[in-house]
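Work Package 4 report. The design task specified in the project plan requires that, given a folded chain encoded as C-alpha cells, an amino acid be chosen for each position. We show below one input record used in the internal validation round.
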C-alpha cells in the first residue's frame, strides 16, 4: 500500500503541496485582517461578514467564464501569476487607504481568477501522482488545508495584535510572493494540455457544458458538492444553537472546532489505513455519517453529545477520498484542469448557499430542527450515491511471462516499450511509483495502477 512518505517523496508534488499550504495560510490571514479593518472602520457587522465571504462566491463566475484557461495556458505561468496577484492584492490593502467598497471589489476581482490558478495546480497533481498515490496526495492536501486554514484564522488575531493590520497584510503578501518565486524557479515549464482556439468565454462555457452533460462526471460532481453544502449549512447555525441552548461561554467555539478536528482524523485514518477498494466501498456509509449524527440537534441534547455528533459528521467527510479515482477516470484527458476548476468553484459556491438555505429554514423552525434538516439532506444524498456508485473493479493479475521474455525484459526494459525510469514525457527524474510520466498522460494506469504503486486516486 502506498504511504504518505512515498507521496511526499515526489519533488513536484512536494512543491505544489507546500506552496498551496502556505497560500491558504496567507489567504486566511488576509481574510481575517480585512474583516477586522472593515469592522474597526465602519462598526458594521454586515460589512465585516461580507469581507469574510467576498472571496468565495465570485469564484463560480471565474470558473464558468474563464475555466478553459486552465488547460490552454502553461501551468507554471498560471500558478505563478496567481500567487503574484494574491501578493499584490494583500500589499495594496496594506499600503493604500481605500474605501470599503474598493477593498471588497479588489478581493472579489482576485477571487474571480482564483479557480483558474487552483485548477492548474490540481491538474498538475493529477498528472504527477498515479493510482493510490493520488488519493493520498488529496488526503494530505485536505488535512494540510484544514490545518492551514485554522492556523491562518486563529493566528490572524495574534498577528494583527503584534504587527497591526498593515503588518499582518504584508506578512500575507510575503507568503504569496515566496510561493510565486518557488513555483517560477522550481516547477518545470510544462506545455498546456491543448491549444487555445477561439474566445476564452466560448471555450469555457462549451467545456463546462460538455463536462456536465457526461452523466458520470455530473453525478460525481454533485456527490462531492451536496453533502458538504448541507453540513456547512448546519455548521453555520452552531453559534445560534449554542446561544439558544444556553451553553457555557466558549461552548460554541468548542463545538465549531469539533467538525474540522473530525475531518482531519477522518482523512488521516481513511486515507492512510483503508485499502483503495475499501475506501470506495465506504463512500455511501461515510457520506451518511456526515448527516445522521446531526439529527440529535432536533433534541435538547447536552453539550458533549453535540460535540460527538459534530466530530462524527466531520469524520464522514473522508467519503470523498473514495470518489477521487472514479472522478479522475471519468474526465476527458484534455479537460482535467477545467474539471478541477469547476469542482472547486462549485464547492465554494454551494458552501455559501447551504448556510443561506438552512439559515432561512432556522427562522421558520428554530436552529435545532434546521440543523437536523441539514443532516437529513446529507443522509438522503448518501442514499442517492448508493444507488449508482460501485467500487472500481480490481485489475486482473498479470500472467507470468515465459523465461525468455522475462530475461529480455530484465536486460532491455520493462517489455512494454518504456524504459525502466518510467519515461515518456521528459519527466523521468521523478519517481515512477507515484506519478504518471509525461504531461497530458495522467489517466494512464489510473484504472489498475499498472505502473507500480499497486493502489488508487482523488
Amino acid at each position: 500500500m502506498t504511504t504518505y512518505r512515498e507521496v511526499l517523496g515526489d519533488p513536484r508534488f512536494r512543491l505544489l503541496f507546500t506552496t498551496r499550504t502556505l497560500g491558504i495560510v496567507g489567504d486566511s490571514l488576509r481574510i481575517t485582517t480585512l474583516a477586522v479593518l472593515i469592522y474597526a472602520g465602519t462598526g458594521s457587522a454586515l460589512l465585516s461578514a461580507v469581507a469574510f465571504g467576498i472571496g468565495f462566491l465570485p469564484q463560480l463566475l471565474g470558473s464558468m467564464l474563464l475555466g478553459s484557461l486552465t488547460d490552454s495556458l502553461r501551468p507554471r505561468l498560471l500558478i505563478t501569476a496567481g500567487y503574484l496577484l494574491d501578493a499584490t492584492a494583500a500589499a495594496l490593502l496594506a499600503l493604500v487607504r481605500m474605501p470599503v467598497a474598493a477593498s471588497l471589489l479588489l478581493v472579489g476581482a482576485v477571487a474571480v481568477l482564483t479557480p483558474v490558478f487552483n485548477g492548474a495546480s490540481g491538474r498538475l497533481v493529477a498528472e504527477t501522482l498515479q493510482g493510490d498515490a493520488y488519493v493520498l496526495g488529496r488526503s494530505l492536501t485536505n488535512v494540510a488545508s484544514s490545518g492551514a486554514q485554522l492556523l491562518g484564522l486563529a493566528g490572524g488575531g495574534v498577528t494583527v495584535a503584534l504587527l497591526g493590520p498593515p503588518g499582518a497584510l504584508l506578512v500575507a503578501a510575503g507568503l504569496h510572493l515566496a510561493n510565486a518565486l518557488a513555483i517560477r524557479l522550481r516547477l518545470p515549464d510544462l506545455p498546456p494540455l491543448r491549444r487555445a482556439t477561439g474566445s476564452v468565454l466560448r471555450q469555457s462555457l462549451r467545456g463546462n457544458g460538455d463536462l456536465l452533460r457526461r452523466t458520470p462526471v455530473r453525478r460525481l460532481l454533485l456527490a462531492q458538492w451536496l453533502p458538504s453544502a448541507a453540513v456547512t449549512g448546519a455548521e453555520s447555525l452552531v453559534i445560534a444553537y449554542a446561544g439558544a441552548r444556553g451553553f457555557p461561554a466558549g461552548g460554541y467555539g468548542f463545538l465549531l472546532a469539533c467538525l474540522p478536528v473530525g475531518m482531519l482524523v477522518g482523512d488521516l485514518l481513511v486515507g492512510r489505513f483503508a485499502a483503495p477498494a475499501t475506501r470506495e466501498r465506504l463512500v455511501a456509509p461515510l457520506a451518511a455519517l456526515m448527516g445522521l449524527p446531526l439529527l440529535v440537534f432536533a433534541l435538547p441534547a447536552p453539550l458533549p453529545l453535540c460535540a460527538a455528533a459534530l466530530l462524527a459528521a466531520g469524520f464522514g467527510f473522508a467519503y470523498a477520498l473514495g470518489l477521487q479515482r472514479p472522478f479522475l477516470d471519468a474526465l476527458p484527458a484534455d479537460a482535467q484542469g477545467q474539471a478541477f476548476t469547476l469542482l472547486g468553484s462549485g464547492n465554494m459556491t454551494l458552501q455559501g448557499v447551504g448556510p443561506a438555505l438552512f439559515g432561512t429554514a432556522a427562522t421558520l423552525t428554530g436552529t435545532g430542527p434546521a440543523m437536523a434538516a441539514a443532516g437529513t439532506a446529507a443522509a438522503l444524498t448518501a442514499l442517492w450515491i448508493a444507488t449508482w456508485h460501485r467500487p472500481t473493479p480490481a485489475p486482473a493479475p498479470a500472467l507470468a511471462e515465459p523465461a525468455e521474455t522475462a530475461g529480455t525484459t530484465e536486460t532491455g526494459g520493462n517489455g512494454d516499450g518504456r524504459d525502466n525510469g518510467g519515461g515518456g514525457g521528459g519527466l523521468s527524474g521523478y519517481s515512477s511509483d507515484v506519478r504518471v510520466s509525461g504531461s497530458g498522460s495522467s489517466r494512464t494506469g489510473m484504472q489498475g495502477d499498472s505502473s507500480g504503486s499497486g493502489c488508487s486516486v482523488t
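Confidence is low (pLDDT under 50) at residues 397-458. Validation will be extended to a larger panel in the next phase.
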